[in-house]
Amino acid sequence: MTIVWLGAGVEKTLLAEAVSKAPLETGGVLLGWITGADICITNVIGPGPDAVHDTQSFEPDSRWQQDSIALLYERSGRRLAYLGDWHTHPAGKPEPSDQDRRTLRTIAQSSTARSPNPVMLIIGQPDGTPWIASSHIYLSRHGSDRIVKVKTVIAPGIQGWDQ
Ligand SMILES: [Zn+2]
C-alpha cells in the first residue's frame, strides 16, 4: 500500500504558501524519491514569481520552476526526482477535479516528466475548516489506468535539501 510521506519542512512550506495566496489558488512541484511502494517528498517548489493566480486555477512560472528543480537536483547529488505536482483548493475539498485528473494523466504520459506514476497533492480548506491534505496517484496497468487516493503522512525525520 503506497504512502506519501511529507518530509520535515514540507508541510510548513505548503501551508505558508497556501495561506499567503488564499483565496487564490497556488501550487508547485513535488521532489523526493521513491522507496518500494512509498513516496518520500523531501522538497517542494512554489509557483514562481511570474505565476498567475486565480480563484479556480493557477498558471505556474514554469521557467523559474525548471531552474529551481535543476538547482536542487545538483545540490542533492542528483538523487532527487520529480514526483508530481501540488496545488491548493482555497475554498474546497482537497479532491481532484475533472481538470486535475486530466492534468495528472498528461503528466504521466509526458516523456519529459519521466514520472509514470505521478502524485497530485492537494491541500484544501472546505467551509473555513483547517487545511487538509490529500494525495492521489496515477496508476497504469495492462492498458487501463486509474487514479487512486493514497495516505498522506507527515514524517519529520525525512530531511530535505536546502533551497
Ligand atoms: Zn484542483
Give an account of the 3D structure.
The protein has 3 helices and 9 strands, in the order βαββββαβαβββ. The chain has one domain: Cytidine Deaminase, domain 2 (3-Layer(aba) Sandwich), CATH 3.40.140. The longest helix has 14 residues. Strand 8 and strand 9 form a beta hairpin. It is globular. The protein has 163 residues and is an alpha/beta fold. It has a 7-stranded mixed beta barrel with strand order 1-3-2-6-7-8-9. The chain has a two-stranded antiparallel ribbon with strand order 4-5. Helix content is 23%, strand content 37%. The N and C termini lie far apart (31 Å). The model has no long low-confidence stretch (mean pLDDT 92).
> What is the radius of gyration computed over CA atoms, rounded to a whole number of angstroms?
15 Å
Class derived from helix and strand content: alpha/beta
Described by strand count, sense and barrel closure, the largest sheet is: 7 strands, mixed, barrel
CATH architecture: 3-Layer(aba) Sandwich
Q: Provide the residue-averaged pLDDT.
A: 92
Tertiary shape:
globular
Note the gap between the termini: 31 Å
Number of helices: 3
Taking strands numbered 1, 2, ... along the chain, how are they ordered across the largest sheet? Answer: 1-3-2-6-7-8-9
Please estimate the helix content. 10-25%
Main CATH class: Alpha Beta
Order of helices and strands: EHEEEEHEHEEE
Ligand types: zinc ion
The share of residues in extended strands comes to 35-45%
Number of domains: 1
Which stretches are low in confidence, meaning pLDDT under 50 for 5 or more residues running? none
CATH superfamily: Cytidine Deaminase, domain 2
